[in-house]
## 1
Amino acid sequence: MLNILAAILLFGFVIMFHELGHFLLAKANGVEVTEFSIGMGPRLVSRVWRGTRYSLKILPLGGSCAMADEDTESGNPNGFLSKSVWARISIIAAGPIFNFILAFFFGIIIVAYRGYDLPVITNIVEGYPAEAAGLKAGDLILSVNGRRMLEYQDLSMYLQLHPEEELEIVYGRLPEGQAEDPSAWYQKDLSYETGTTTLRTIYNEETQSYMMGIEHYSNYHPVEGLGKLLRLGWHQVALQGQAAIESFRLLFRGYVGADDVGGPVRIVAGIGQMVEEIRPEGWFIVLLNLINWGMFLSASLGAVNLIPLPALDGGRLAFLLVEAVRGKAIDQEKEGMVHFAGMMVLLALMIVIMFNDIRNLIF
């Protein structure tokens, strides 16, 4: 029971932090916030303070920041629509930005504790593309299709998100003798040769994934310096956010099925299972894993919300940016119809995802 509770609290905290961004920027711009709620559905606890109702609702998977005149202008000088377009942009953008801030904070904690793991090849698997492409054990993957690989996680995620694509790989190779020790790559002022090769990943039925044919044994190294720590912490945020957006591309291309898309129920179940499995290792390890999940959830929520689709923050920002450019707002009724249609589609999608989550958990 505690594992599910921990998962629900983490999920709720990430969403609450998103809504907190909207709330704080609304208050800073003098917008009347009618209700700030954590959760969805009927209220469990509610209190009005300084004109805003603060509510805790029965379903802990959601939240909202309701503002006066958010959709229809009534002449309220403190209403959302009465504020300048740039004030409204700042309020809407604050939700995803706060998610990135939270994910960045979590990312710094994770990197500070575990260090970083360079994408050094440990072994080459016979018969796979990496062998034919001339890669060797001890090589460091520097970039793939122009994207720099800072950690092995970059490489593994890129391969998952770009199946069957031609990959141009730039690698580094140490002189004979040094290549046997992967730790050599963590030394400063190294002298090494670079090379470029191309390959395509192939599907492995056993692992059910696309592989290039390399093995990697983790070799985490402490981070030296605050600057590098901050850079690697932000890199974790960018990596998770980018993966969330690119997953949609795989969905439309048919590499990801509808049953593979997880919603709140599956996420909570997954976090709960993780807590249950690693709890014997101690609550400190559990906390670190929860922080890692929090980083993933917060970065993903921030990135997905910036997609310019109706009903998402990105869709509202798109309308506001058009207004800023043309100097005139789009007709509120037409914009409202677009957002309402988007909300209906989003709700339908959430119902389908929740149904799949529950079905997969039961069967």
## 2
Amino acid sequence: MCSSDLGTGQHGAHFCEHVAGLRWQLSERPCGLEALRLSLKELGPSVAAMGAELLPALPLDVDALDHWPDQRYQAVFTANTLHIMAAASIPNLLRGSAAVLAAGGLLLIYGPFQDGGRHSADSNKAFDAQLRALDPAMGVRDALQVIAWADAVGLRLVGDQAMPANNRLLVFERQRLG
């Protein structure tokens, strides 16, 4: 069963409007593909930047590691997902991302984080409590743990940017093999 926490495609649509030559491959849990298609229709027609293309969504369950796309990407982007997915799924997201990234490719993770069990803002602490009350498997994740898991699968932290509303953008680079 799919929860209401589904992707809308808004990031892909926005970036394709503004970045020439971008090819953005949408993905969503299989149970949410139809909702994503409807959301994109509601966003309305957009004018893509020259050569930009928003590709139809692929079904993706991060825990089904043998069902990730069999191709290489320059970047993987995920926004506001780690805090709503089960903590046990995060290493799978990182492992799958590392597998589909070309050497030197980037994994960009946007959302709220804590560090060493400490929240960066009272609003994030309250949000964490709210999430855990809804489902104990959810919660604001510890960036230090995410960084350690990423490092274990060949993703090295190359950026940690503060973002609006007490969010951050963690940027990892897929290490070159050999």
## 3
Amino acid sequence: MTGPRPFNPLHKRNLAASIAEALLESEPVPLGTVPAFSGSGVYAIYYTGEHPAYAALADANRDGKWWAPIYVGKAIPQGGRKGAEVDDDDAELPKGRALAARLKEHADSIRAAKASLSIDDFHCRFLVVDEIWIPLGENLLISRFMPVWNKVVDGFGNHDPGKGRYQGLAPRWDVLHPGRGWALKCQPRPEVPATIESEVAAYLRGRAFEQPARLFR
């Protein structure tokens, strides 16, 4: 006779869900005003503006709903773990400012694309997480929300490849939202903005956005 499978709180699926739920319990803050803070972790960025390609997302995020991130990402400190520091409670203290720096980088990208985007239309949630659990949380958030800037309009999180490495194509994100100086040095893509906008509309069409808390039950 078989019975219900016992719940394992330490299964990686459940650990990932705990990270995702903790992130979603935090209050969104304007992306352009995130203060400096220590730690690495995961984050979700939300859009509430008037760009026609993202109308469905904006509707899902207005009025305090915050149901549909446009992008999900992670920030891991450069060089990885180099030994723990502990406080009086023997809890590891966050080191570096990888998460805050990553969010500032994203804010700068959006400001550079001022012809099509406004930083005032973006909010974010972020969560400082122990380094070893960060990929688990990010992977679950992306798989559940399928954010359009992760899945269709790729390249938002790209870095400047550096001098002598501009032979590659510019990211699709920079075709739809031009303005980043380094992307202008890359090779032009065959797509035009209208083509990518059509792909975004097709991707979002018919999607049923729901309260995020239900996604992890």
## 4
Amino acid sequence: GDLLRDADVALYQAKAAGKNRYEVYDPDVKSTISRRIDLEFDLRSAVEGNQFRLVYQPIYNLDDLTLVGVEALLRWDHPTRGLVQPDEFIPILEQSGQIIEVGRWVLRQACEQMAAWHARGETLDVSVNVSGRQLDHDTIVDDIRQALRVSGLPAESLIVEVTETALMRNTDETARRLKAIKELGVRIAIDDFGTGYSSLAY
């Protein structure tokens, strides 16, 4: 059992380093990789187990400091580990492809919460991050359309945030999907501008 577990850790290292290679088991990295493997396994039941929640970061107009919107941020309350930081679990969601299902959940939750705030008279916008993996599939357009329909949120109150790096993946297909999203009435923003290609020419 120990041999198989250690071999699995080495296999994980080889895959993380680019595949088509071999790695010798290193006990120094065992705990880090074991934690990552455990988190990847636990993420499979996080949505069904209601372990995810959204927090909302305020967005202010710098001219007069009025509150104009919020950004929906994903948090994971692990049943035994407590709060797991996004920079630890979101890359795992990306690599495993689970980000598509979780991203669909985030869109729906964020739209429903903002629609509830609108009903109380708070006419704010909500920004939701969309990953490159989500933009690789036509389902992203349907997911956004469905979230708006179910929640009743006006499309112009939703802002989809895309990173520079995500924009440069499969540029033709990405541009086509972003155009379809824009045609729904949803706005699009570039997140982390200047940290990737950082060229307006792109």
